[in-house]
Amino acid sequence: MGEHMAAQGAGIGTVEQLEHPPAVTPPWPCPAKSWYVVGVLLLAYTLSFIDRMVLSLLVAPIRAALDISDTQVSLLIGLAFALFYTLLGLPLAWIADRYNRRNLILVGIAVWSFMTAGCGFAGSYATLFAARMGVGVGEATLSPAAYSMLSDYFPRDKLARAMAVYSIGVPLGAGIALILGSFVVQAVLAAPMVDMPFFGAMDAWRLIFVWVAAPGLLIALLMFTVREPLRRGRQAAGPAPIASAASTPGLIAHLRTQRSALGALFGGMSLIGLVMYGAIAWIPTFFARTYGMDVADAGLWFGVIMAVGGTIGLLVGGSLADHLYAKGVADAHLRVMRLSILLGGPPLLATVLMPDPTLAFVMLALAYPCMTLHGVGGVALQLITPNEYRARMTALYFFVVNLVGLGFGPMLIALLTDNLFQDDAALRYSIATVTAIALPIAAIILTLGFKGFARELARMSAEAGAAPA
């Protein structure tokens, strides 16, 4: 019956459980310390996206050096990374639910940084494929453990803002990668070989992998300054979620119990991801095919819009969700997700239908901050998930959303272009079709989940002995 908290262990060892009297509620960490943790995790998340996307900026020199096809390159960019990133996220999240999350993240940063550098030293397609797999494995440690940690650093009415700041790593990292991409290709072509101490002459594209991997070592050292927080709201003692069926249902039973709320979250976010990942993949090419722009120039402007607009949208979305939640709106986070569609969908659709590139960029600049309001979806998941399952539920959430969004978003747009319109110049209509169909369905799914989510939130709050707000 006592409340249990997890003390920081040495290494990735079992988290020690300390029992408190029922009346004792451990105080929340100092806000300054909590926000410092957010800052360190933000740096890690930003770097992870730069490391993730850097290979796509170097397609031409890699193809020439390794004598591989476009199909083989696409496997390096997609399958080699995404498959291991999504699948291994589940067992790694199981570790995060049982053991020291800070140390798991630290090891993950070191692994993906080492593997990113390893991409630069790959002498064959097979070794480059293996290195990309390693990048995916390392990055799979981050978000499930980070979401779980932040839920123990911030009270519910401040959690959305904290996670919004952490999530800035997505548009910031992707935006920086696109912006750098407009200069990287020119630099590689201008200086194809670089003299390196101990290694001699080295291809410039190989050195880029080393450059983007190096900051990971510094961030890994910074993680030593982050403390593993006390695990709040555990329903059972011990390092694992072990309890009777009456007090703590198994993970599968938990999924069945919350199928309405989780269905809305997973379904709505997956369709939003389908549109967003598809847009990220094809919008620079859309500007090139429709308006005759250079892809590098289009990528540069799109990168700026992603970095600035995405940051604004995530911060506003997190603050709005916290404000509504504090006012007693139980389904605040789902309402903000729906709002992102209602505000961002029309200008996103208009972007690909504009008669000139200037108007298209204006529409895109209006759409992106609105569309990124949906970043509070991960917060909603934490609010209705027991501490015992938070990392695993987050990993499952990312698995489904990335599988649908990253796996099918870019491909669906390409299939429509190749098979329905059968014209490369019709890419704009493929993007418009996916946007016009997927986003309204996502809004409907989220709306249908309002009551179920509010019900589950009230039940979770009652079991924790706390008010919903």
TrEMBL record:
Keyword Membrane: yes
Keyword list, A-Z: Membrane, Transmembrane, Transmembrane helix, Transport
Protein name: MFS transporter
Matching SUPFAM superfamilies: MFS general substrate transporter
Highest taxon of the lineage: Bacteria
The keyword Nuclease appears for this protein: no
Membrane-related topology note: Multi-pass membrane protein
Main localization, broad class: membrane
